[in-house]
Amino acid sequence: MATSNTTHVSLKLLIDTRGCKVLFAEASKDVVDFLFSLLSLPVATVIRLLSEDGMVGRMGKLYESVENLNDTYLQPNLDKNTLLKPKTTVAAGANILPLLTNNINVDSNSKQFYMCSCCNPLHISDVCGTLCPNRSDYMSIRVTYVSPQASSSTVVAKSGCEGGYVKGVVTYMVMDNLEVKPILSTISSIAVLNQFNVKDVGALQEKVVHLGMQEV
């Protein structure tokens, strides 16, 4: 679903036409990676401090989904705490903006670091001209940050990691409150229908929607 400069990710909605509401969505790895990437923003720290019950809106449920998701479905290089307790921008995982804009070099162009010409142990700084703690010299040798997306083929070949936050081994269910969980079997979907007390299966309708930069 690509255009000249934008890529879309898709998800399938299951709609109760009688009740006029979306029951849940079937989402691919890319969609879940995007939802989880929202927690890489400082908002994850806010959620943790306020607690789920004190969080306005549905972000608390999204936070809880990461807490409850079995490590089996997470990429091997990902620590949950990078999402649940972010210190700065999450390093491991996905950046949905390059995915949706077909630009894998966004991070590479925006992140630059500097080091001293010769010192041991090495130190780096994100500010050119910082005084090296090892010697009376300034850190001015530029080191360019390379994002995981820019070298994804190498990462996959070496570690077997798909990139992003979750694995693409299953389809994921996203509820209207942003709760995310893997669909392990058809029984999982049937259980959700029972949860919503759906009596007329014939009133259910599927609809595929596409998310691009504008929708995000």
UniProtKB/TrEMBL annotation:
Pfam families: DUF674
PANTHER family found in the cross-reference section: OS01G0153900 PROTEIN (PTHR33103), OS09G0544700 PROTEIN (PTHR33103:SF19)
Protein name: Uncharacterized protein LOC110770268
Species name: Prunus avium (Cherry)
